Amino acid sequence: MIKSKYDVVIIGAGPGGLAAAIAAKQQGAQDVLIIERDLELGGILQQCIHNGFGLETFKEDLPGPSYAQHFINDALALNVETLLDTMVLDITPQRRIYASGARSGFLEIDARAIVLAMGCRERTRAQIRIPGMRPSGVFTAGTAQRWVNVEGYMPGKRYVVLGSGDIGMIMARRLTLEGAQVEGVLEVMPFLTGLTRNYVQCLMDFDIPLHLSHTVKRVIGRGRVESIESVQVDEKWNPIAGSEKIIPCDTLLLSVGLIPENELSKKAGVLIDPITGGPFVDDRFETNVPGIFAAGNVVHVYDLVDWVSEAGRQAGDSAARFALIERRKETRHVPVKPGPNVRYIVPQTIDRESLATGNVRMQLRVRQPIESPVWVEIRGNDNLITRKGELYARPGEIITLEIPMKAYDEVQLVDELVIDVVKR
Fold first, then answer.
1. Among the residues of 154-237, which ranges form H helices?
2. pLDDT (tens digit, 9 = 90+) per residue, 65-74?
3. Same CATH topology for 5-121+259-330 and 339-423?
4. Domain 5-121+259-330 part of CATH 3.10.180.10
5. Residues 6+ positions from 231 with CB-CB distance below 8 Å
6. Which of 73, 179, 289, 417 has the fewest CB atoms within 10 Å of its CB?
């Protein structure tokens, strides 16, 4: 049963979100919820079946799903709540979350603290403006990765990869292992943009050529990609005449950069760094909006998943600390209620911590006069906290009494205080 309010809500169940949830629980947050739009926990790791994960965190060389499962097991063991197949529609600066799920319907959830862990998305053909025809067969490398590794579907037989990002190089190797022909990787920059280890293990080890300072000049094909025209570029990315080359292929994979997913961040009023594309954060990963934290690839794109998890842990720990302070604020004041023969009381609430430094004075008026000795009593959870004797009680005269310092411990345990005036 989903609650209406949580200590910490994490948006995204990838490595950053899972680590944040675990850290929040370990720091003392009572109610922690992960909201994930996919059908399972783990995020993009579930389709990353290659090794290379966990070298720093676990001192093991793990495939992505195995790395994720470590965190999934820990989160579930700590009773972190999860809401899957659910899309967050909006977040307000007051930390109210609006979401919609296939099973849960429309939801409104308040959070004492939020961790943004939505990760990042790939740039598409439209964003880099590749000219040419618009046939089928142009995909992002991540899309192809999911089809091959999760859905069991090969999107083509003969490939060109544009961009030397890590996903593109990893997919060049993966497709080669599945029997496809990878003609080469084109990189518009004069240097590699992914990790050197992936260049060695994915391209060099499989004799897949890398062409630096090259890009796709145009896509050729009607119903399906038939070929691409590559071209060499100068230091200003201008095409060098005469360097054009037609490369036959039926599929073009794009590995041309990642963009942090921050549409929700902007709705919440979070300031975005124009260079990283992610939120401005402090050393605790808190954004400019109090109580909203961000971690992982939603902040900036990391080289290693281990670093994403570490950032998630820091954000989750900080979010829990913030939430616990908010929870104490919410319960710090105890309401003071009038009994049957009390018309009103001032003050109407008291700060529990005030009793740490002195007595707290209360003033009240009765509804009906009692012309005989009375007790003015203060009770909490039906237990007598303190009382004061008076010779009488009259509506026209204020009665004053004090809650003593020695009642500090008792007052911490009550939900409300009730003051009444009764005959002795």
1. 166-177, 196-198
2. 999 999 999 9
3. no
4. no
5. 214, 215, 216, 217, 239, 240, 243, 244, 245
6. 179
